[in-house]
Design a protein that fits this description.
Length: 102
Amino acid sequence: MMDYAVQSTDQGLNISLTGRMTLIDHDKFRAVVDSIERLNGGICIFDLRGLEFIDSSGLGMFLIARDVAQPKGVDIQLLGAQDAVRRILQIAKFHTLFKIAP
């Protein structure tokens, strides 16, 4: 099960994700998307250092966040993905959709 924390910054949002991000977390992730919807421009950084696993549903949740962020002028960045999560992001070619930082 995934947990999250949303922190507002001068530039936008920092969102920390921990645990396992799977289909069961879709409703919980809706609150994260709602936070992004309230932004007008800026940067939304997803801190993935505590995320242990992500499945295809979790990838889809990031795409939903991106679809909400783009019309609002919000840049989404994925930060600190650990080995297993980083591999899945690479396989899904997320580097073509998001800025991914170590």
